[in-house]
User: Fold these one by one.
Assistant:
Number 1:
Amino acid sequence: MSLISRNVFRALVQGSQHVGKGVHTSSVNCEKNVRFAPFGAMQPNATKEGRIKCTLIPGDGVGPELVYSVQEVFKAASIPVDFESFFFSEVNPTLSAPLEDVVNSIARNKICIKGILATPDFSHTGELQTLNMKLRNALDLYANVVHVKSLPNVKCRHHDVDCIIIREQTEGEYSALEHESMAKLYPRIQFEKMIVDNCTMQMVSNPNQFDVMVTPNLYGNIVDNLASGLVGGAGVVAGASYSAECAVFEQGARHIFSGAVGKNIANPTAMLLCSANLLAHVNLHSYSKMIKNAINKVLSDGRVRTKDLGGQSTTKDFTHAVISSLV
Amino acid sequence: MAVRLLSKFRVLPEIRGVANVSSAAAPATLSDFDVQHKTPVIRKQKLIPKAQYGGRHAVTMLPGGGIGPECMGYVRDIFKYIGAPVDFEVVDIDPTVDNDDDVQYAITTIKRNGVGLKGNIETKSEAAYVTSRNVALRNELDMYAYVLNCKSYPGVETRHKDIDIVIIRQNTEGEYAMLEHESVNGVIESMKVVTASNSERVARFAFEFAKRNGRKKVTTVHKANIMKLSDGLFLETSRRLAKEYPDIEHNDMIIDNCCMQLVAKPHQFDVMLMTNLYGSIVSNVVCGILGGAGLLSGRNYGDHYAVFEPGTRNTGTAIAGKNVANPIAMINASVDMLEHLGHHFHADLLRRAIDKTVNVDRVLTPDVGGTASSTEVVDNIINNIGRC
């Protein structure tokens, strides 16, 4: 227990040290950018041609539609990533791939992009653990990192929100005790405590005061969702879960949006941001920037907007707009 | 006296708790980094969870002075190019300041990251109370063993060919105890501290190293004919441990003879084990034989931490910023680091590129007989990556 909560805290502070705020992504910054290019895909798990394998779990609800959008963008940008796709679902247990296969695939590839898994109201087998929890425990994905950042031209009550929420997600409702002892190891990072009830109030009244937050499991879930609401909802906030060995990229606020299934109206921004973070994680920084810039451009132009951001455009329209903005 | 006894008692249970697990064998699949962090050892330093997130390692980078910063720049360029899953946390240490804040912070970062890559840190102050920062770093992290792998590059012209020596040096005590005082006016005493526990640790490290790397012989270097107690203890300890490793030949040699033998017949040596100051001297002798300060890389190991640096601890202030410094030593140190972390794929990629640059393409800086600039060497290495 103590080990895990320490690790979470460490993930927190290490994350905060990275200038661009992208955890694990932006620290190798050097002036001379000239040489950085096509050889980026040299990974141990890459194939002969330098392509990278990535596990893909479409998930439930609008998940498959959003993942399709990511695949379209990757194809258009000829990004050297191959997906190993698994249908994985708890609401549809007969079609779902076995947990073991999925876990093995992620452990082998080290990276995964995942839609949201729905949790049925009652379990078919009487088990209490959800599939999400089983996956996290099997891979020891102890830290969930959500970067909540205001996007251009997304109208919200607050502007320039930019904070990272780190949530412990393999344990229960205690851990704060250890944080202070870890803070001593990071003397150059300011550390303060806040009680969760006050914290939620501060979040909605003055979110700009926060930089990096670390929370236990349940509070993290609440704060994640609250913060996502501040910057435009579940459709625009990306997140990732980390273990020591692998990283699973998924949306920050976990909603399956089942009401929108098949209607082609869900916002793929969050999923595309996830994919950009994934690319940065495997050192494909130029591709990552390419996608992020394209998303920012489409949002700034404001002509193509999905329903959740007050527009009339479809998921496909948005995806195509991003593709045509790729430079 | 009573107080001293009491403090001893307080320490005891901890020692007893870990003594019976200290020799647990590590599975072969673990990287050195994992071995340090996942297997039980005698805990002199408190264990901190390892800094690995989503398959990426966090590593402390201490550029140091002189040519350090430019060499670190090359390492980062190369790491970016090969996509090594390593994130650097850079700590700059101001050499002109007398206080120790930066050094303490550097030590803290290494404690939480477990691994560091460093240039040589200058200690400009000559005031007696300011201790060498390099020494402080090694002592505080209890990195008791220093390993210098001295292997000839066929591409570098030297008097002796095909040398392959490993120098293992006690890194925290001996002559470097930094205990000096003036007892009577005009008489300075300097203490050399040798302890049985540290001698045993480093000797065991040497024999284990020899065993794991298929080496045949360990030579203990000493001056026990003069310093009968201190070097005597060091020599006795290594002789005693040698009996536990019957497959590995053990001999000893007096330091002065050793230096002569090294320059005359270096091929007789395999693994060399010695105390702190002798290690410093012999490392520089061997580096000199193999082509100077710019080629070889050294490794500092403790039970929990590892720090990688260029083999001879020189800052190279005179050639800083002139684009002539040999970057190979620092790049080799970074390869050692990748190997330690278990990123063998990237380490091999880089190692092959360096070997081709030095031995086949012969793109070399002036210090090893070439005409290329530092950046030309680095560019050549980058060009070779993935193509050899």
Number 2:
Amino acid sequence: MNNALEISNLEKVYKGGFTALKGINLSVKQGDFFALLGPNGAGKSTTIGIMTSLVNKTAGEVKVFDHSIDNELEQAKSYIGLVPQEFNFNQFESLTRILVNQAGYYGVDRKLAHQRAEKYLKKLDLWDKRDDAARMLSGGMKRRLMIARALMHEPKMLILDEPTAGVDIELRRSMWEFLKELNGQGITIILTTHYLEEAEMLCRNIAIIDQGKIVENTSMKALLSKLDVETFILDIDNGTDIKLSDICYRIIDEHTLEIDVKKSQSINAVFTQLTELGIEVRSMRNKSNRLEELFVSLVNNNVTGS
Amino acid sequence: MSSAVNSIALKSILHKEVHRFMRIWVQTLVPPAITISLYFVIFGSLIGSRIGEMGGFDYMSFIVPGLIMMAVITNSYSNVASSFFSAKWQHNVEEMLVAPVPNWVIVAGYVGGGMTRGILVGLIVTLISLFFTDIHIHNIWVILISVSLTSAIFALGGLINAIFARSFDDISIIPTFILTPLTYLGGVFYSISLLPEFWQGVSKANPIVYMVNAFRYGFLGITDINLTVAFSVLGVFIVALFAIAMTLITKGIGLRT
């Protein structure tokens, strides 16, 4: 099966000399749920901008479902649905008009466009607002409107640039379910996000970009298996005088203990020692998301190495 | 993409553009009607009655075609300039840029929207003029061709202005400092044959002279400019401005980074 996206030696130098991309290579399989992560200014949005023709590349090649953006740009674009980071719809138009016009730009006739607008507005819980001007929507509703708009031509690949930024957790979870459903229907999804929990939960493959270079490109499973140490926070009863052997730990206060558990270690050893000391553990949680720890370590290594 | 897909995309842009100016008709259709009505009252009825004939017609009949054309020019230009710049400013122009819409369809869609508003305002002004004078029609085809070409030229001009504009001020500079003087000196209110020979020559460098005279010929059968020359000038302007607009959009000037 051919790849949904093939990027080879992609470079971008902006006017003024800033190099945003330093020859990146990336491929995304058809049907994949792919995370493109990186700190602010790493080159994620530039990469997406080049794929969707909003940014002119300096060098390299981009193919979308085997169609090069150099000589088959319109075909390549017809496969992509884009949910950008910033709200970029006409704030004065109604939701229905925004969706129907967008479908028209992809050659969907108005009758079918109205049917699809109804389908996606209902699906994304915006149907009651269909005749309202877009500026009247809340932030979460505007995000959902942009997802509906990107789906109007039923693309084979959906690119979401920070789709859940500023969205409350309940809504974020319902959006995750919807995205999983779309991916289940065979739509290739490329996601950029600052919520690493989101990437870990949704994506099968991942690339981490930093300072215009891909510093990691692998499966989520393989990446997470690289995590050597996990830090846990334990809520405990009266633990001012704790001494643990063979465990790296920090007493934060009399009710909070932080422990670093290596992959080779058993967490049972910690509980055994705490029990012997007569300390009860009330609850335990990860200090940070597992992917977050890896992300920080990869990006820091890149900064140190550069 | 296929011509059917392009045709739907073009209709969508046109639909969006027409809906935009119809939604705010109080700002887009009413003001030019009021402004031109004042011209009819002041220059046509009050002052015009003391001027007497011009080109063999009473002054009101003489200025009606020019005033209609002035409304068409202003509205074709400002519609595209403000609509395209707003789309740039709100970033919703990206909706078209990320879609498989060929650049010529974007240009044609916006120009079509500008022409629709320009010609609609022209029709409104024509209807208002009936309250002040009888309208003669010498050659309907010359009227239709000259109004369409003129409207297209200024819609293209508005588009180019909007592509370069970086602020809302930038889209009012050209109408204020270039378009209005050229229109007033373009033979709307007088026949350029009244000018000394030197200024007649200078006036012929003003493209609006060709537009107004061709249009006036369609109504009254009189012109200061040879019709073939007038249409040739309009044709050259359309080709040149279309080529400039296409080049700018293809290169992504002001649109892509």
Number 3:
Amino acid sequence: MSDKQKRGLSVSSEGEKAEHKAVLSRRKFMGDTLKTACGTALLGLGMGTYSRQASSFPAGTIRPPGALSEDEFLGACIRCGLCVRDCPYDMLRLAELGEQVALGTPYFVAREKPCEMCEDIPCAAACPTNALSHELKKIEDARMGLAVLIDQEECIAFQGLRCEVCFNVCPVQGEAITIEMHHNRRSGKHAMFIPVVHSDTCTGCGKCEKACILEEAAIKVLPTHLAKGLPGTHYRLGWEQKDKAGGSLVKPDIEHQYNLPEGVRYDYNQGGLELPPEAKLEHDTPFSSNPLDSLKKLQNQENK
Amino acid sequence: MMVKSSERHQVPSQQAVEKKGWWRAHKWFILRRVVQLGILALFLAGPLLGVWIVKGNMASSLTLEVLALSDPYVMLQGLMVGHFPTTEGLIGIAIVLVFYTLVGGRVYCSWVCPVNIVTDTAAWVRRKLGIKVSSQFSRSSRYWLLGLTLVLPLITGVIVWELFNPVSLMFRGIIFGMGWAWMVILAIFVFDIFVSQRGWCGHLCPVGAFYSLLGQKSLVRVSAYNREQCDDCNDCFVVCPEPKVIRPALKGADKGIGSLIDEGNCTNCGRCIDVCDEDVFKFSSRFKG
């Protein structure tokens, strides 16, 4: 049995031979095409899956100002490095193969070199695809991440020591980080000067993280989605609603009835116990509040 | 001097050197390397010497703060996600598109792309070692891959191919830092030597596939204008990265096919011009034939 017969093709005339040749080349074409298509599909599956993993942007690395959300950024950034070149402080770099950041995309590490917040935002202006949005006009509006005083055990402000370095280096000074005074319970008589970050003004530039005096920074810039909570959309704060409405939206509470002696009342705002007016009258006591009275008494006794 | 054909194909330029001299047997090869390395040097002058002539990389660059150039293939991937380039980006794409449409799309491959140096060297090593075994991919695989790289962004929302693309990887690596990218380059080198002849650039690379589409009707073309002088030495086929493009022009006289190599996949590398000791080929234009 010849090879062709085995494959179900009988050979008889010249015309049929040509036809069989066509069939075979068609088969070969179909086979090759199928092979390539399957290979391509498998490759696509692999690459697609990998791209999902590679799109997890690690905390500790920060995108340049104006960067779109990470999902969008990976679809828009073409990894040209023009932002890197136009950064006058040379703090941006492109991820190399083997790093955790998606290959070729720009980022910086705050602890090494933070963003200097140039007023003209040259990195974003250089971007040819708007992956760093040109709509960002004021660097103060950048939200590269959010600083979080993440270690409240090691931060020396919580030991009652004066530091405030993060507060002092903050480029949005006095707004993004403020100092709040708390009672120092260890000494009992001092204040603790606690830095507090405000998310409505913090740009995530990372200067505080860079400046933190600890071996490992206690204040760190995190991706906003890791740093921020989000209350339920139905959630309302009573006092804010009261201010907004200009008065209480519910009936006032019935005043609490304390079981106290007649005439005594309790001022729960600040006054504490309030005695009735007659209780406050001066009593005739053996002891005068005026020390001269005591001397006069002694003199009187001696004279007698 | 007669040379055995097997030996001859290990050194295809030998006859040409003897007949035309070393320079004319290597002219286009040397010019290409000068251009390829020159482009890299322009990009490297900034970071290495502080002389900022060109910024960025092949994906997008800015020359002398004026001339913006962008890779249309990379931009197209972004477009598939739905991201529209800025005006500078669009101008850059337009310039590059027009340029390669005129001079031949795959001029990018042989005159610009740094991977070409790797795969040309691999092909040379392969000839030297006399390796004949090659696993066969269809040369159309690259168009499948091209399609894939344009569909994946549509599905995932990520420019997936740029996580792998050895072309951008190598160019960016040289200018911005390699990391482990040299492993990929080495892999392509080894693949081209031992696994598949002209495997990467000639069969798989979707970047080349994209540029071949640009160069379908380019002005600048190689012509086998002197084809009756061909002595069938086969040297041009041995050195050509896309040997299929030569045959119609060189051997198609009796079928009425013109002497112009009019094929999008001809990279206009000019190596056939170099190695032909009969001076069959020359650079020409599509209007001259």
